[in-house]
UniProtKB/TrEMBL annotation:
Database matches in SUPFAM superfamilies: NAD(P)-binding Rossmann-fold domains (SSF51735)
Name of the protein this chain belongs to: Glucose 1-dehydrogenase
Gene3D superfamilies: NAD(P)-binding Rossmann-like Domain
Family note: Belongs to the short-chain dehydrogenases/reductases (SDR) family.
Pfam families the record matches: adh_short_C2
Enzyme class: oxidoreductase
Lineage start: Bacteria, Pseudomonadati, Pseudomonadota, Alphaproteobacteria, Sphingomonadales
PANTHER family: OXIDOREDUCTASE, SHORT-CHAIN DEHYDROGENASE/REDUCTASE FAMILY (AFU_ORTHOLOGUE AFUA_5G02870), SHORT-CHAIN DEHYDROGENASE_REDUCTASE FAMILY PROTEIN
Domain of life: Bacteria
E.C. no: 1.1.1.47
Entry GO MF terms: glucose 1-dehydrogenase [NAD(P)+] activity
Entry keyword Oxidoreductase: yes
Amino acid sequence: MARLAGKVAVVTGASKGIGAAIAGALAAEGASVVVNYVSSKAGADAVVAGIAAAGGEAIAVQGDVSQAAEAQALIATAVDRFGRLDVLVNNSGVYEFAAIEDVTEDHYRRQFDVNVLGVLLATQAAVPHLGEGASVINISSAITHVHTPHAAVYAGTKGALNAITGVLANELAPRRIRVNAVSPGFVVTEGSRAAGVVGSEMETSLVAQTPLGRAGQPDDIAGVVAFLASDDARWLIGETITASGGIR
């Protein structure tokens, strides 16, 4: 039996990359999925079409989770459409690398607004609708301990997210809502290609540090998220699971 049959999941930033793979994995486990996007309607629609073609159920919903009203509207749409909410995956994120001399207020605020404030606002909107056994899963990054140069701000956002995960795990545990995080290593996505990491010396260095000897793929992360969303992970709370092929 599918592990998430009858459940409803919202995946933020799910029009491509890791988010798209997570949406597909949750749908394959039986969940009805809300595929959130900010600007790529075509990408979100393609994810929904792929889920439907595989026999699943999904809808695409636009919304910028770094804006409180839009985060609230996203969750409200999910509940209106499917009648409940069981899983929230906080995947929306942006990253920009910059040497410390080049860090600006805009560089800082854009990343913290999406990567940190967006998680808080989406979770705040979701909590009133989450019942016993629900799961919140935050997508962090192994960059918090790999300490890649020029990533001070991005790594800072993910360090904050790890702390938030632990705090909310304890805060929401009395309601039997589990909060955990997944911390990917280097993953080949549209974003890492656009940033010039794929095919660069940085990719070569990261793969060389990875005991399994390859870059990650979105599906490598999606399977871990599907596990955390399921009852198989019922005894896991406040964990940050590093899914990095062994990179430390």
